[in-house]
Amino acid sequence: MNTMPTDARMMMAIRVIVVTTLLLVTLIIQYTVTEILPINYLYLVAGLTYLLTLTYIALGRLIRSREINLLIQIGGDLLVETLLVYFTGGLDSPFSFLYLVSIIAASMLLYRRGGLLAASGAVILYGLLGDLMYYGILPLPEQTWFIPTPWTSSRLYFNMATNFAGFYATALLTSLISEKLQKTFKELDANRQNLAELRALNQNVIESIPSGLITISTYGSASFINPAGCQILQTQAHEVLGRHVTELAFFTVEEWSEVREALDGGALVRREKEVDVPGGRRTIGFALTPLRTLDGKASGYTLIFQDLTEMKKLEGEIRLKDRMAAVGELSAGIAHEIRNPLAAIAGSVQVLKNSKALTPQEERLMSIVLKESERLNKTIADFLRFVRPQEKRAAEFDVAASLSETLDLLANSPELQKHEIRREIEPPSFHIVGDADQIRQVFWNLVRNAVQAMPEGGVMTVRTEVEAETYRIVFADSGRGMSRGELQRLFQPFRTSFPSGTGLGMAICYRIVQEHGGSIEVQSWQGGGTAVTVVLPATVSEQGARPLPAARF
Predict the structure, then answer these.
(1) Given 74, 264, 318, 363, which residue has the most CB atoms within 10 angstroms?
(2) Does the global pTM surpass 0.85?
(3) Going by C-beta distance under 8 Å and a sequence separation of 6 or more, which residues neighbour residue 76?
């Protein structure tokens, strides 16, 4: 079913309302005034209008064109208006202005073409009515409010000329205004559409950028935060909006005063700061710039920030690798140069110790020298193992069983008299590809470090789990924990927190795990213990070239 245009339905509704109102007024006058007035023709006009309205509705279901529907209705209105003019005096009727209403409606809805057609229709109907009545072909109706007056030809021509000029002038002026309005409306719609698209693009860009964005008013209160900012700060937008910038952990009150002075002077403020968020302590890098309106007036500030925590970790790893590489290249030769004369010294002292001419004091000194030589030789051996590790012999082995065997050996060690080892090894058997001896060395070093971190005794929990394509082993102790500085130096050679340590155990673990394509993650709390997590790929190639992250600390 075809749907009638909206403006066509609106015209019919207005027409029905006007005619119905006129009909009610006619009825009231008919039954309240004692004198009988000649207004019965109004019933005829109203009836004809209703009939035409029904015709418009029927035609509207058949004709889809908006212009044709409107022209049909305007033509019908002109006929009704001509009939009303005839009943109210013809050429003397004051209702000839109703033609202008139809002409204006046609000019507004159909623009210049429709207005000129309506004006032409009014000219034809009004001129034809005037001529028929002037020449007596169409007599004046009996029921009329007006007394007919004689018309001369000059008066007829003047009346026609003025009305025709008024009809066309109204059509042209109204259509001109209507066309300008139409053009203005189109421009407004286009601008509105462009503005909506620009606003959507701007909103999409702001919500899509990975950096956090907070807009700050001139008074220092947050007025907007994008989703990335909420994610970085681990908060909700309503928890940020309206709060002062000094309450968001970026600035103290004193720092904010200094920053505002710098911004007012045209400077760009860039800083890094460690911020406590619900997910932990994060390193945030941010930049603050003035925010201005189109006319250059200050309207606040923009705070753009990023989470640099992972980047700082990567920088630490790179510095550690560079440091380890430099130490390895420089020290490997030195270690060999020390080890050769050390072997000669130890051999010579051993020969001298066997001499029977030594006093007890000299024998004791010889024993001390030999003992320290052995200790120094062990340190050099560990160091050489670190800087020049043995070639990895990759083979499939049961990493869970290897871990259990290492814990069994340590459980019988004198070092673990005050300690308890809790095992949560699930599954009890799990095979990976790697160097079993090197992996066992990692387990041994990590467990001994955990024991040394609990000199007064404690509990160490060893827990394993299979996650995605990795095998994770967690060594958690209840020892003294480490400070942030100790965590940063944990994998550096010759940095140790234990009196008897060489500072190479964790560095060796780091290198072995890295060469197996895995990673080491360390979490520690001062006074609350340490948890070291070794992450190994479930399958490792012989070259160990799996793209997994390096050690994290």
Answers:
(1) 74
(2) no
(3) 52, 55, 56
User: What gap in Å lies between CA 336 and CA 340, rounded to an integer?
Assistant: 6
Residue 464: φ, ψ to 5°: -125, 155
Q: 35 - beta bridge partners?
A: none
Would you give the end-to-end CA distance of the chain in angstroms?
Answer: 73
Distances (CA, A) of 506 to 246, 314, 410, 440, 486: 41, 18, 18, 14, 12
Q: How far is the C-alpha of 110 from the C-alpha of 143, rounded, in Å?
A: 37
Cβ(530)–Cβ(477) below 8 Å: yes
Give the strand pairing for 529-537 and 298-307.
Answer: unpaired
Which among 272, 307, 342 is the end of a domain?
A: 307
Closest residue by Cα to residue 408 from 400, 435, 529, 382: 400
Whether 80 and 48 have beta carbons less than 8 Å apart is answered as: yes
In terms of residue numbers, what domain contains 378? Answer: 313-387
Same domain, 136 and 264: no
**Range 498-522 average pLDDT:** 77
User: Would you say residue 512 lies in a domain?
Assistant: yes
User: And the tokens for 85?
Assistant: 């003019």
Side chain identity at 46, as an amino acid letter? A
pLDDT band per the 50, 70, 90 thresholds, residue 173: very high
Locus of tokens 């020892």 = 479
User: In 10 A of CB 292, how many CB atoms?
Assistant: 11
**Packing angle of the helix pair 41-62, 6-32 (nearest 10 deg):** 160
- Pairing type for strands 419-424 and 458-467 reads parallel
* Cβ-Cβ contacts under 8 Å for 108 (sequence gap 6 or more): 174, 178
> Residue 33 corresponds to which tokens in the numbers above?
């005034």
The dihedral region occupied by 22, where left means phi > 0, alpha psi between -120 and 50, and beta the remainder, is alpha
Please give the structure tokens belonging to residue 413: 């060690």
The number of domains in the chain is: 4
Estimate the crossing angle of helix 153-208 against helix 98-134, to 10 degrees. 160
Which residues pair with residue 301 across a beta bridge?
A: 216, 290
Out of 347, 371, 387, pick the residue that ends a domain. Answer: 387
- CA distances (Å), 318 to each of 130, 378, 496, in order? 103, 29, 20
Q: Rounded to whole angstroms, what are the CA distances from 434 to 402, 404, 431, 533?
A: 12, 17, 10, 18
For residue 459, what are the β-bridge partners? 420
What is the 3-class SS of 378-435, one letter each residue?
HHHHHHHHHHCCCCCCCEEEEHHHHHHHHHHHHHCCHHHCCEEEEEECCCCCCEEEEC
Long-range pairs for 73-77: beta carbons < 8 A, 24 or more residues apart: 73/8, 73/11, 73/12, 73/15, 74/102, 74/105, 74/106, 74/114, 74/118, 74/121, 75/121, 76/52, 77/15, 77/101, 77/102, 77/105
185-189, 357-361, 522-526: range with highest mean pLDDT:
185-189
Considering the domain architecture, whether residues 413 and 488 belong to the same structural domain is answered as yes
Which amino acid type is present at position 312?
Answer: K
pLDDT in tens, 399-447: 988 888 888 877 777 667 678 888 888 888 888 888 888 888 888 888 8
Residue 550 lies in a domain: no
